[in-house]
Amino acid sequence: QKGWQAMGADARNRILKNVQRVMIRRADEIITTINRENGKPRSEAATMIVSVSEAIDLYTGIARKYRNGKK
Question: Which residues contact 65 (CB under 8 A, 6 or more apart)?
Fold first, then answer.
């Protein structure tokens, strides 16, 4: 936690956006893994990926606005 906080919002945003890109690029593999390990239907697993991707967009956007003084 301290290391994450110490790196600053811009660095955290870059990491999160990279995670998002990798997650989307490997979505089929992730969906298959979720389906096999948890028995979740592929459609539900895909919804999870979309939800996480949208959360990353939301929170990186909030961080950018906060950094730019637009609270």
Answer: 71
